[in-house]
Structure formats: C-alpha cells, structure tokens
Amino acid sequence: MGLVVQKYGGSSVADAEGIKRVAKRIVEAKKNGHQVVVVVSAMGDTTDELIDLAEQVSPMPAGREFDMLLTAGERISMALLAMAIKNLGHEAQSFTGSQAGVITDSVHNKARIIDVTPGRIRTALDEGNIAIVAGFQGVSQDKKDITTLGRGGSDTTAVALAAALDAEVCEIYTDVDGVFTADPRVVKKAKKIDWISFEDMLELAASGSKVLLHRCVEYARRYNIPIHVRSSFSGLQGTWVSNEPTGDKVEQAIISGVAHDTSEAKITVVGVPDKPGEAAAIFRAVADAEINIDMIVQNVSAASTGLTDISFTLPKAEGRKAIDALERTKAVIGFDSLRYDDQIGKISLVGAGMKTNPGVTADFFKALSDAGVNIELISTSEIRISVVTRADDVNEAVRAVHTAFGLDSDSDEAVVYGGTGR
C-alpha cells in the first residue's frame, strides 16, 4: 500500500460530529496499510466569517495581517482532527502550511506555491504517524511571512503535497459524490462522471465548476497526480481525474458537462480609438494591477467615428481596482467612458468530443434561444463554448442546455450532503 493524500473541505469538518466522522475514515485508510497525509480546510463557513469580521474592523485590511487572520481557521481544524484521531487510538501530528514546507511567493491573499519541502511530514510518516496539514496557507520565500493561496487553496495544497511526497493518489473529499455534469444544486438530474481528463476538468474548473479549482487541476496535470473526487458523507466511488481512465476503459463523452459562474463582472471601455496599441495599453493597465481577465470582445469600429468598444470579464472582487487602474490611463488611451456591470453570469459547455461533432454549437445556441436567454458575449476554444448572459437567467440556461444535450439522469437525483455553497 502506498502513500495517500486526503483533503477534506469545510463542509466535511463543519462541526464536531463531522470531524469525528472524518477521523474514522482516515483511520480506516491507515488500517488498510496506507501512509496517510491529510489536508484540511477551515470548519464550515469559518473563513467567510473571518472575512466579514475583518471588514467590520477595517474596510481595507492590510494583506499581511489579513492572511494571519484567515489562516487561523485551518489551524483550528487540523488540531481538532488530530485530537479526534488520537482518541481512536492512532498517533497524529498537525502542521501549519509553514511547518509542512509549503513555500510561496510574497503576494498576500492569493500567493502561488514555489516549492514544497515536506521534511517534517516525511519524518512523521516514518515514525508511523498520520500527518495533518492546514490547507490554504504557506510561508513566503523571502520575508518568511504567512501567506494564503486564495479560494480553493486547500485543494492546491493537497495536490502539491501529493506531488512532493510521490503519492499514488490525491483524494479530494467534498459534500457531493464526485464531479457532475452540472452543479447538482442547480440541476437535480445531473449525472456523476466516473472519469474525466485533466483537460476537460481544467475547462470546467475555469468555467465556474466549484468542485475543483483550476490551479489544483493544473498542478495535478503538471505532475501527473491522479485525483479522486468523492464525498466524505458516503462510501461511494467518486470521479477520477487523470490522463488515462482508471480501471475499466471509459470512452470520453462528447460533452463532459455544463458549468456556470456568477462571480464575474463585465467592464466595457467605450469609444476606444481604433488604432494599433490601444488594446495593448488597456490590458497592460489591468495586468499591472494584477487582475486576471477572462473573456474579451471588441466591437467592429464605427466607420463614421473610427472608435470601437472593448468589453472584458473579470472577478467581481477586482472590479473597483480595474476601474481605478483604467481611469488613470484615460487621458493617455483616449477612450470616452467606462461601463461596469456585475449582474452577469457565464454558462459554458465543455467536451473534448465537441470539435469532431458538427452541430454542437448550433444545438447550444438553440437551447439558449428556446429558454429565452439573451447572449451578450461569446468565447470558444477547441473543447469549450462560453457565453455571458444576465445573472438572473443563468440557472434556467444551465438546465436548458443540460437537457438539450441529453445529460439529465434517468435515475436518482444528485445528492448534496452538506455545505451552504457560500
């Protein structure tokens, strides 16, 4: 039996009973002969509650102190889980991200992992212990400050440790039974996917699927670490994410799933002179503010004025910063005005078989049309079609597309065991 890394999300350790249930599962893996490393998130909505508290104290908390505050949630979880495991008669040691050797850059609130040096984790395993690691956090390489990895950082911590420790699998435990063809909170007839490629999972994650975060999947693909997404509330097999199907050969489906995202906003730069260098100046200003952009659309230049409009989407949380950055360049670029819209949603259809199956695009847009959904932006890749629409239309659009492509389950409805989805 090899080494296994298990990650448990906030809904799995939301209370004392959840922590004791997780401890039993971990001990069972240990009894089966595995070396076990566990990465744990903060309990339930602890992180959101800490964020709310910080905002009540300071509208713009300093990044260093904000990270120091947020990492408290995972430290509580890891210590309680270690206690629960010891109560079952097995030895466990808890480690912060820093103690586990998670080395990051110095960008507070959304740091990136540079290296993992898990010397203390290996020592704990060699001594026969179960290692419990606080997810979502690390230590900066230069200043040795505590850092956090941003939303979904615990998933990334787990995969990074799995790669550094040469684990045979990284198990991601959540409040659903695996990766589904759509969010089961929105589509009750969503189907569980038995196996999905890294590429399709990357597209789903980038398009808003919250069961796995994009950085986690990218890390797993880079180091070829198989991920098994499953529920901590049941004993069912989940979804395998890997380069090759695990177990019996599974043929790649034409459509892997439908993802949606309502966490983005749209900025339109109005009246941009249609000449070389203007778009570059706009996006340089946004990049210098360290803001990630998703979809981009430029309108055809008006012949009478020689001006065009450029629209792009970005995280809502970065909206104010992007507007301020662009306003500072208005005189240089020469655009007329800025429009900000945070009442949008993105719907994406993902599948590796799309490029070899004519009619997928037509069926996608017909389903949206039949549902009365108006499209504002369109973006495509070889295995994805994404559209932006009104936020109020997103759920209906997802259900319509899911049904149109025959993804609805004929049997039991998808089960969401816990979690608020917040």
Q: Key features?
A:
single chain, alpha/beta, 4-stranded mixed sheet, 422 residues, 32% helix
For the report, how would you describe the main beta sheet?
A: 8 strands, mixed
Based on DSSP secondary structure assignment, what is the total number of beta strands?
Answer: 20
Overall pLDDT, averaged?
92
Rounded radius of gyration (Å): 23 Å
User: Please, how many helices?
Assistant: 13
Helix content: 25-40%
Structural class by sheet pairing and helices: alpha/beta
**CA(first)-CA(last) distance:** 37 Å
Oligomeric state of the chains in view: single chain
What's the layout of helices and strands?
Elements lengths: L2 E6 L7 H16 L3 E6 L5 H12 L5 H8 L1 H16 L4 E4 L6 E3 L8 E4 L2 H8 L3 E5 L2 E4 L5 E3 L4 H12 L4 E6 L20 E3 H9 L7 H10 L3 E5 L7 E4 L14 E5 L2 E10 L4 H11 L7 E3 L8 E9 L3 H9 L2 H4 L3 E5 L2 E7 L9 H11 L6 E5 L2 E7 L3 H11 L18
Parallel strand pairs: 1-2, 1-9, 2-6, 3-6, 4-7, 9-11, 10-12
Antiparallel strand pairs: 4-5, 7-8, 11-12, 13-18, 14-16, 14-17, 15-16, 18-20, 19-20
Q: What can be said about this structure in brief?
A:
The protein has 422 residues and is of the alpha/beta class. 32% of the residues lie in helices and 25% in strands. Strand 7 and strand 8 (146-148) form a beta hairpin.
